[in-house]
Amino acid sequence: MKPAYRVALVAFPGIRAFDVSVITEVWGTDRTDRGVPDFDLRRVAADSAPIPMRGGLALLPDRSLTWLSRADLVLVPGLDDHLTPAPAPVLDALRRAHARGTTLAALCGGAFTLAQAGLLDGRRAITHWNLIDFLRTQHPQVTVVPDALFIEDDNIWTAAGTAAGIDLCLHLVRRAHGAETAAAIARSMVTAPFRTGSQAQFIEHPTPRADRDADALAAVREHALRHLHEPLTVADLAAHAGMSPRSFARHFTSATGATPLRWLLDQRVAAAQKFLERTDLPMPEVARRAGFGSEVTMRQHFASRLATSPRAYRAAFSTSAAPDPAPDPVPDSASGGSSPIAR
Predict the structure, then answer these.
(1) Please, are residues 136 and 144 in contact by the beta-carbon 8 Å criterion?
(2) CB 139 within 8 A of CB 190
C-alpha cells in the first residue's frame, strides 16, 4: 500500500485563518472514496500551545517542527500583518527543509515568512498585489514578480492573495497527483480546477458583463473547447465572435486576464492530461485530439509547462486501461492560461 502523502502546515501566531482553512480543505479532507489519494496533513509548530488566529479561532498543533523532515510538502499560510516576525525555530526549520529538497509553498503574505528565512534571496516570488511594494522594500534581494497568480523558483512556490492560494494548492495537487485528482478536489470545493499561475492577479471585468460582447466571448470559449482538435487561430475565434482579430484579442484579455493564445494552449494541455490519465490512446492520437497536431508539438509544450514528457506524465498518473472512443475536451474551468493556437 502506498504511504500517505505527507503535508506540513507550518503554524505560528499571526497566520491567516483563511489560508489555514484552504490548506485544510484541500489536504485535510478525506476524499479517498472519490479516488483522491490519502493525505496526511499535520499542523506543525515550535511547541504544542494553541495558536490564536483572528476571529476568535485557535489552531492546535499536532506535530513539532522536527516532523518537517518527513514531509513531502511544506506549506506556509499568509499573515494577518505582513510584518509579523516568524519565530527563529520556524525559520531555521524552513531553511533545513529547503536544503533537503522538500517542496515549500507560501500563500499570500506567507512570502514574507520565506523572505525572513532568506529563502527568497535572489529568487522570483509573488505576493498579494497590494503587498508587492512592501515586499520589495522589506526584502530588496527578492525579485518580486508584479503580476501572476503563483510562481516557482528552486522548488519554492509563492502565491498572490486569497483565491490565488486555492489556485496554487490545486496546482500542487495536480503536479504531484495528476489533473484528475486536482479536478476531483476542485469539484468538491465548487471551484475552478484550472487557473494557471501566469494569469493576471485581477482583471478589468472580474464578473461577466451582461452585454453582447460578454455573451460572444463566452460562446467563443465554449466553441473552442468543443473544437480543440481543430487547427484554431485567433482569426478563427474572432470571426466566430463577430469581431476583428485586434478587437477580439483586446476584449478577450480584458475579460479573462489572458490572451486568446495563452488561454487556448492551457486548455489543450489540460485536455491532453485528461487523455493521458484516462485512456491508453497512442501519443499521436492524444496530440491530435488535444489540438497539438503532432506528438512533437505536444511534447514541447509539456516540457515547457509541466517540466515532464507526455509519456512520463502517463506513467505517473494513468488511471485507465481502456481507450476513450471520442474527444472529451476539458470544461472551461478558468479564464487563464497560455497557448499557441495555430499549429
Answers:
(1) yes
(2) no
The residues near 318 (Cβ < 8 Å, ≥ 6 apart) are 276, 277, 280
Round to whole Å and give the CA distance between 304 and 317: 19
Q: What is the pLDDT of residues 224-233, one digit of tens each?
A: 989 989 988 8
Cα dihedral angle (296, 301, 303, 305), rounded to 10 degrees? Answer: -170
**Residue 89 zone, left/alpha/beta (φ > 0; ψ -120 to 50; rest):** alpha
Q: How far is 180 from 51, CA to CA, in rounded Å?
A: 35
Per DSSP, the residues of 57-114 read: EEE---EEGGGGGG-SEEEE--BSSTTPPPPHHHHHHHHHHHHTT-EEEE-TTHHHHH
Closest by CA to 47, choosing from 24, 67, 65, is 65
**pLDDT value at 198 more than 80:** no
Could you give the 3-state DSSP secondary structure of residue 23?
A: helix
Cell numbers 470545493 label which residue? 189
Most confident by average pLDDT, 29-33, 158-162, 206-210, 250-254: 29-33
* CB distance 196 to 160 below 8 Å: no
Three-class secondary structure assignment of 187-231? HHHCCCCCCCCCCCCCCCCCCCCCCHHHHHHHHHHHHHHHCCCCC
Rounded CA-CA distance 170/176 in Å is 10
Q: Return d(Cα 49, Cα 37) in angstroms, integer.
A: 30
Residue 1 CB: number of other CB atoms within 10 A? 4
Find out whether 68 and 74 touch, Cβ atoms under 8 Å: yes
How does residue 258 score in pLDDT terms, banded at 50, 70 and 90?
confident
H-assigned helices in 291-328: 295-306, 310-317
Among candidate residues 198, 184, 191, the one with its CA nearest the CA of residue 336: 198
d(CA 19, CA 115): 18
Rounded Cα gap, residues 84 and 112, in angstroms: 9
CB 24 within 8 A of CB 57: no
Position 6: which residue type?
R
Neighbour tally for 25: CB within 10 Å: 15
